[in-house]
Fold this protein.
Amino acid sequence: MLTATSNRNQKTSKKRPPGALAAAICAAIAACASSTGAAAQAPAKDAIPALASISFAWLAMGADWRDPPPGSGHGPIKQDPAYPFHGNLDGPGQVTLRFGDTKDPVLKPWAAAQMRASSEEVQSGKRAVPFTAQGRCYPGGVPGQLLYPAEPFYFIQTPKEVWMIWQRDHLVRRIFLTAAHSEDVKPSWFGESIGHYENGDTLVVDTIGLSTQNSFIDNFRTPHSTKEHVVERFKVAADGKTLEAQVTVDDPDAFNEPLHLRQGWRKVDNLLLETACAENNGDYFHQNLFPIPEADKPDF
């Protein structure tokens, strides 16, 4: 199993018996629920949003970035107009594939060329389906992981860290509640994320140190460089039923200006299940799918 975590203060953990992870998560969330309940009695400036619970999770409202509020700046990369997109939610009809608009002037030449090459693999018939991170058992990176729509994700909130845990492959992203990044950040799938709360309803996350191989901004396979800097603002709606993220991606080596993106989730009643991508993801129909990751040697 491929595990993705943030790279700050990591330690190798011993293997746990089946169910131990779920039990630990439930215990941590229960403790968090107790602490956030107490915080709710404090003045608003000291409150924190109730992102974590043992009784609900967050399910993404689609697999594409939404446009940002007017005046925010350049929005997300869109579908190539030469290849109109038709998805499952667009009514009856053949589902098509995602090909990004490589003529968008925000893209640096190398980024546009890489996207074209990826699209041409499919358009030429070399592959039947283009690469998607978690479709082929890879972590989605930052902020691309936020677009995974099929299974929910969960928060754990503690005084020093916030964890985001995706049911798919049990991917864990750690957000450290501190004011500064480490002096030396080694690139990793989820980079180094630091954060703080604002206004009692928002978690602000700042991320650097993101690896680039098989890591993309979106499902159009928009690449980024090692200079990528992402700021996310997760805000819970007043009624508590939805969550929204306003995301800014600043990468002077990949984009001519920052990208401003938006994603939303709805609250769902969903206990944490264990699902493993690689257990049933072979190329059974000989479509030359992008290979799933394989270890060079066993870890046991």
